[in-house]
Amino acid sequence: MIVYDHQFNANEWSITAGLAVGFVIIFLLPKRFPRKVSWTFFMCGVYSGFFFDHSVGIEPISFYDVNDRSTFEVFDFLSFGTYGPIAYLFFYIWDFLKWQFRMLPIYVFSWTCIYLGLEWLGWSLGVFHYQHGYTLAYSFPIYLITLSLWSVLYYYFRSLMARGQRI
Amino acid sequence: MAIALATFVAWIAITVFFLCPKRLTPMEMIFLFFVDTVFELGMFSVLHVNLQYIEVTPGVANSISNLTFRLVELPFLLVTTSNLLLHLSPILKWGGVISIVLFTVIVQQILVWMGVLNMHHWNVWYSGLTVCVAVVASRVMAALIRSVSPNEAV
């Protein structure tokens, strides 16, 4: 087990602040989606964080550790919660902008840049600890693919609404 | 061989999911899939990384087999159990859920026999218990998401 630090410091504070700001933004924003859909969009972010942390971030080659130790701790689970509000915002803003479908690649690319910026911030604050030659550049295709898949979920939701199907 | 087996089993899970009569709406099932994965994977991570009760044998094939089991098979089967538990027919409901729990435990045991997983201070009964806990958690989350009015906006 690798221990990076023992203190409640920058990484824990940034996760706490991220969660607080994220939830405040969600509650302050005017309502746009049915509640079930909002929860699903929120969980989409948490799920993606979990998915990659358990595929890229653990054995056989753990490319990164999260927070103070290589084992799991409470703040690791809380950190996945910060993905939820960001995912919600991704769906919310796309729905709000009402851009044409052909603008989607630009939108996904813009959000990929935002995610890379946030990951860089996380790395600087000690939330992420890269290993085995992993760098921020490897996250670039991961975000592009993940956000593209989220867009598929959004259009699936839209198609259900358009068909008047029960959601 | 382990990858082939895990993929085959995952495909069986997907087939069962598609064939089972649905009681949840598409968005509810997607929500449950996400929640079930997070819950099950969270539980497994603590058992694997922190407590080291279950160990995945080092190797890419073993790791992929285990991930296929955790990220595909189990979530699909858990969503299926939540659908089945909403059925009125007790035979379909309990017969289906018990079969799925047994199937999952047997697959986990096969992964142990194939050397993909190593159990320390852990046995097949505990595996069965964790699957049952995951089934209950999934059903609770299904009740929660169903209780939300579809027209209520957030």
* Helix percent band of chain A: 55-70%
* Overall number of structural domains of chain A: 1
Quaternary state of this entry equals heterodimer
How many strand segments of chain B? Answer: 2
* Distinct helical segment count of chain A: 6
Which strand order spans the largest sheet of chain A, edge to edge or round the barrel?
Answer: 1-2
Distance between the termini of chain A: 45 Å
Compute the CA-based radius of gyration of chain B.
16 Å
Range of strand content of chain A: under 5%
Mean pLDDT of chain B: 91
Gist?
The complex is a heterodimer of chains A (167) and B (154). Chain A is mainly alpha-helical and 167 residues long.
What do you see in this structure?
The complex is a heterodimer of chains A (167) and B (154). Chain A has helices spanning 10-28, 35-55, 74-81, 83-97, 104-124, 136-162; strands at 64-66, 128-130. Chain A has 167 residues and is mainly α. Chain A has one domain. The longest helix of chain A has 27 residues, at 136-162. With 154 residues, chain B is mostly helical. Chain B has one domain (2-18, 25-147). Chain B is built from 5 helices and 2 strands; from the N terminus they run H-H-E-H-H-E-H. Chain B has a two-stranded antiparallel sheet with strand order 1-2. The longest helix of chain B is centred in the N-terminal third of the chain and has 25 residues, at 26-50. Classes of the chains: A mainly alpha (167), B mainly alpha (154). The interface between A and B is medium-sized, with 34 and 35 residues.
